[in-house]
Amino acid sequence: VHQSKLDFFCKLGYGKQDICKVLENLGQGALEDDVLKELIRMGSKPQALESQAQSSPLKLVARGSCSTTPGSKWLGEDESDSSDYLRPIVIDGSNVAMSHGNKEIFSCWGIQLAVDWFRERGHTYIKVFVPLWRKEPPRQDSPIADQHILEELEKQSILVYTPSRKVKGKRVVCYDDRYIVKVAYEKDGIIVSNDHYRDLQNENPEWKWFIEQRLLMYSFVSNRFMPPDDPLGRHGPTLNNFLSKKPVLPEPKWQPCPYGKKCTYGNKCKFYHPERPHQAQLSVADELRAKIKVTLSLGKEEEKCSRLP
Predict the structure, then answer these.
(1) For residue 31, what are the domain limits?
(2) Which residues contact 292 (CB under 8 A, 6 or more apart)?
(3) Which chain segments does UniProt annotate as zinc-finger regions (C3H1-type) (predicted)?
(4) CB-based contacts of 93: which residues, under 8 Å, 6+ apart?
């Protein structure tokens, strides 16, 4: 009896010394439940659990954190280029700069803030469209602040100038909004702007759907670029899912049954029952019928065994 109990608890992963101590204290005739309770009370743990706890310590993660690092794995994929799971970004440079300058000054620093925000998030494809005439020296009717930022972004192949020219002293400017929507549509990316592009929506029905679903609006709060956490409304996707090619679906949250074990609805109950996570939710009558069938089958097997010589 001693050896059988020793083998049984060794299979569970407990150490032989702890098992022998408990058997000496409780005696050879102690029940297995009593031995198990005494092992737990002594603080003894199975060796498999101890090795797991030592090899893989728990990591604390900030609650509600939505920040992602480029080196972290995304949906179980290998560590690869962030362009595999993040959408391309196309920024309306004029809209962002004028918004940062309170619609009075073309503030290039606002464009830099927006580019830095997407860079820190891990986006690799970022394009900013600005009319070519913004390269000219500033005037009183069109003031520009921090114009050198445009040159730096152009050297980094981030900023793109839309063409413009002068004909008989008049400036002929190409429509930069069409460049922005066309590139974002071809790249299946995100448009960063507070403009609704209503004229382009009426021009092309495919662009209309794309602008409605892929337009990311924003705000500047004390020199901080802040897009909304719910770009398509309260019932739409989160900002992380909106900016990613492979969105992460939220885990379903089951509401526990208010009646608990006293619930008589069985499989018709729409609430979650923690006491039967891996069992089919049967009604009370079906459970009783199943129990009766089991007892009857056991009785028939005993009768057959007694009839055998």
Answers:
(1) 1-42
(2) none
(3) 251-276
(4) 111, 128, 129, 130, 159
In a domain, 284, yes or no: yes
Phi-psi region of 169 (alpha: psi -120 to 50; beta: other; left: phi over 0): left
- Look up residue 192 and give its DSSP letter: E
Cα–Cα distance list, 126 to 14, 89, 120 (Å): 57, 5, 12
287: left (phi over 0), alpha (psi -120 to 50) or beta: alpha
pLDDT at site 119: 92
Last residue of a domain, one of 243, 264, 285: 243
Phi, psi of 43 (to 5 degrees): 90, 15
Give per-residue pLDDT as tens, 174-197.
888 899 999 999 999 999 999 999
Directed axis angle between helix 16-26 and helix 32-42, to 10°?
120
**pTM beyond 0.70, yes or no:** no
Asked if 257 and 236 sit in the same domain, the reply is no
Among 178, 105, 173, which Cα is nearest to 138's?
105
Name the stretches of the chain with pLDDT < 50.
Answer: 49-50, 52-53, 56-57, 61-82, 281
225 and 280 part of one domain: no
Total length of the chain: 309
Based on the domain organization, do 300 and 178 belong to the same domain? no
**Paired sense of beta strands 219-220 and 126-131, if any:** unpaired
What is the chain's percent helix, strand, coil content, to nearest 5?
45, 15, 40
CA gap 190, 211 in Å, rounded: 9
Do 303 and 163 belong to one domain? no
Domain count, the chain: 3
Residues 94 and 232 in one domain: yes
